[in-house]
């Protein structure tokens, strides 16, 4: 991976799921819905001045998948 470039897509890990769990309340508040399931399925990272996570999250309240972007 070149500096600043995106990594390959990887399957979500327990650590990525922990990040997603931390932002679930904020997502639900902004989206105006409660999600029964909020599960990370895949992710990419980008290393710049820290790490940016691009995470595909499947939610089950409307049977939709969303992508979220987390800065760490």
UniProtKB/TrEMBL annotation:
InterPro entries: Cystatin_dom, Cystatin_sf, Prot_inh_stefin
Gene Ontology molecular-function annotations: cysteine-type endopeptidase inhibitor activity
Gene3D superfamilies, per database record: 3.10.450.10
SUPFAM superfamilies, per the entry: Cystatin/monellin
UniProt superkingdom: Eukaryota
Location in the cell: Cytoplasm
TM stretches of this protein: none
Keywords: Cytoplasm, Protease inhibitor, Thiol protease inhibitor
Any Gene Ontology CC annotation: cytosol
Chief place of localization: cytoplasm
CDD domains documented for this protein: CY (cd00042)
Sequence similarity: Belongs to the cystatin family.
Name of protein: Uncharacterized protein
Source organism (scientific name): Geospiza parvula
């Amino acid at each position: 991976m070149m500096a600043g470039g995106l990594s390959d897509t990887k399957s979500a890990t327990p650590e990525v799921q922990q990040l997603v769990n931390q932002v679930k309340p904020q997502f639900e508040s902004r989206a105006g819905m409660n999600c029964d399931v909020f599960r990370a399925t895949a992710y990419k990272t980008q290393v710049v001045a820290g790490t940016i996570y691009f995470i595909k999250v499947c939610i089950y309240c409307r049977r939709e998948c969303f992508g979220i972007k987390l800065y760490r």
